[in-house]
Design a protein that fits this description.
This protein is mainly beta. The protein has one domain. Helix content is about 0%, strand content about 55%. It contains no helices and four strands. A two-stranded antiparallel sheet has the order 1-4. A two-stranded antiparallel ribbon has the order 2-3. Strand 2 and strand 3 form a beta hairpin. It binds zinc ion. Zinc ion binds next to loops.
Length: about 80
């Protein structure tokens, strides 16, 4: 199933329990990282460019329902 993407006017809502604020998001992304190693070999990622990103699933933290997500208007959004 395709997860609907929230926008500037909309947000996620769990259709089962009404949760608006807490979700576990499984995301796959393709990124390019600038990795800077110090002389001891410890790596630090200094830049991260996201080439593509896909949300694979969203699970509600309250009722554990997977992909039972709808979009609702954000409070104060112009309709
Ligand atoms: Zn829920």
């Amino acid at each position: 199933m395709t997860v609907p993407q929230p926008t500037a006017e909309t947000r996620w809502r769990c259709t089962l329990c009404g949760n608006l604020t807490r979700f576990d998001v499984t995301r796959s992304s393709k990124v390019v990282e600038f990795v800077h190693l110090d002389l001891a070999g410890e790596a630090t990622t200094e830049e991260r460019e996201v080439l593509s990103e896909t949300i694979e699933s969203v699970r509600c933290r309250w009722c554990n329902a997977a992909d039972q997500i709808e979009l609702v208007d954000r409070p104060g959004a112009e309709v």
